[in-house]
Amino acid sequence: MRFTALTSGAVALALTASAAFAQDRAGWPDSFTVGTASQGGTYFAYGSGWANLVADELGISGGGEVTGGPMQNMALVHTGDAAFGMTTMGPAAESIQGTNPIAPGLQMTNACAMFPMYQTPFSVTTLSSSGIASIKDIPDGARIGFGPAGSTSDTYFPRMMETLGVNFERRNGGWTDLGGQLQDGLLDVIAFAAGVPVPAVSQLEVQTKVNIIEFTEEEQGKILETFPVSSFSIESSTYTTLENDARSVSMWNFAIANCDLPDDFVYAVVDVVMSDNDRMVSIHRAARSTLPEHWNKNEVMKWHPGAAKWFNENGASIAGEMVHGG
Q1: Is pLDDT above 90 for 144?
Q2: Which residues form the signal peptide (predicted)?
Q3: Which pLDDT tens digit goes with each residue over 146-191?
Q4: Backbone phi, psi, residue 76, to 5°
């Protein structure tokens, strides 16, 4: 009898806990998607990885979705067509101002900051056989692949090249496709803006000899003066091709969430991603920068209240006016 009574009590306690847990998830979506970018780029590998991690940990169906990159992700998350996405600070600022080319005039203020990801370095890759070993070596009319239309790379790298006096033919496409075109001689240069190591570059290194071109100090200085970027150094250990660190510039990336998602849902997602950096790094090495202390790299977007709550509980000091609805 005593065993039965204890068992009944345990069952009742379990049922009570289950009911409370279910109640805590009221309003949560049954599934979610994360807007990433094209296959072969860092966004797709990183975004699909954290989407799968969150889906496994929270027991919700979710995954990464191929998109055109940051500009499109801002639009998808703003409208709610994607729960989550990934963007860089430049495209985020343009989208909030209403200058996103996908929907000119629409201020995409319903996409909220969720967590810092990593810095996106801007780098140039060519085949060693091309003889191009510096920006100045790029010939007039060179065919340059700038990534998917509307991506961070496509938005900023052509302007950077023009600032540096490069004349080129502009080509767009997914990173894997552009890597194949470079190898086949259909492109002269690929201008990457992606977290390193870029999967497409790593694959090229396996198949052929490449040059990963750094900016000179003068070139870097011109870009820093003109664009919303920071100085960056690509570590030599990133690629087998590099013998020394490569001078570059970078732009911060943030994960974004539709601002209307339940606070406790977004809080739970942020907790999964930010609480175990080792697992994130196992998804992609760029996640070494996916750390709570980088919360202050966002000076553009309002924070989702659920995300702001997590970061403020973990050492941040996000001001109320920087929180959506605050």
Answers
A1: yes
A2: 1-22
A3: 998 878 899 899 999 999 999 999 999 988 999 999 999 999 999 9
A4: -65, -40
What pLDDT score does 23 carry? 47
How many distinct helices (H) and strands (E) make up the chain?
Answer: 11, 10
* pLDDT given for residue 13 in this prediction: 39
Q: What is the pLDDT of residue 19?
A: 39
Torsion of CA 222, 155, 85, 288, to 10 degrees: -30
Q: Taking CA 36 as the corner, what is the angle to CA 272 and CA 173, rounded to the nearest 5 degrees?
A: 160
Among the listed residues 266, 263, 262, the one whose alpha carbon sits nearest the alpha carbon of residue 27: 262
Q: Which of 190, 204, 119, 199 is nearest to 158 (CA)?
A: 190
Q: Quick one: average pLDDT of 304-309?
A: 98
- Check if the beta carbon of residue 280 is closer than 8 Å to that of residue 54: no
Nearest to 182 by CA among 160, 136, 213: 213
The pair of structure tokens assigned to 302 is 């309002």
Strands 84-88 and 246-258: antiparallel
The pLDDT of residue 24 is 79
Strands 230-234 and 246-258: antiparallel
- Which CATH class name applies to 120-251? alpha beta
Question: Do the first three CATH levels of 31-118+253-322 and 120-251 match, i.e. the same topology?
Answer: yes
**What is the Cα–Cα distance from 276 to 54, expressed in whole angstroms?**
12
CATH number of 31-118+253-322: 3.40.190.10
Mean pLDDT throughout 293-314? 96
Q: How far is CA 135 from the centre of its chain?
A: 26
Most distant pair of Cα atoms in the chain: their distance: 90
Could you state, in order of their start, the residue ranges of all structural domains in the chain? Answer: 31-118+253-322, 120-251
